[in-house]
Amino acid sequence: MKSILIGGDLGFASIGISVATFDNGIVTPIQMRVIRTKKSNEGSVSEDNFNRARFIYHEILKSIPIASIDNVIIFIEAASASRDASAAGKVSLCFGVLAAIAAEHNIQVVQNSPQKIKKILCGKTSASKEEVEQALRNIFTTTDFDSMLKQSKVPKGLYEHAFDALGAIVAGSLSEGIDIRGQKC
Question: Residue 106 needs a FRET pair 20 to 30 A away by CA distance; which of 60, 61, 79, 123 works?
Fold first, then answer.
């Protein structure tokens, strides 16, 4: 049975989303995108945050094929220490949105720390964004990530969010017993 694997690099201004299929022991990335929200100067900060969270909710749902909702697993990079209380609060809103989607559709969510994801992909917890991206390109050698990201209109400067989301899928899959190492997709 085919499963849909959704990866998330959760933030508030930029949210990385990757979608892959898992079928017959093969993980195949099929979509990478970055959801972007912009601060509004109209209304209160509270209203703006609420509207941005609502936008994130709908955009994440667009990435989940509702027809196969019974076979979906979401893998996310766990929250890490934020720079300040405001940033932490905004990222928490995004986590709340994802928790609501998971609860509403009874979707399993697997979290791994950014350090664990880097360790699994690159062999060290201090791996750079470029090393994470290269490790994923080495796993999925036949996937044309550049075309996929261009099709989703992701600016090069934001690729890291989509690759972090795919890294969450790979690390989460391994932690769930889906061994994709050495796979040539």
Answer: 79
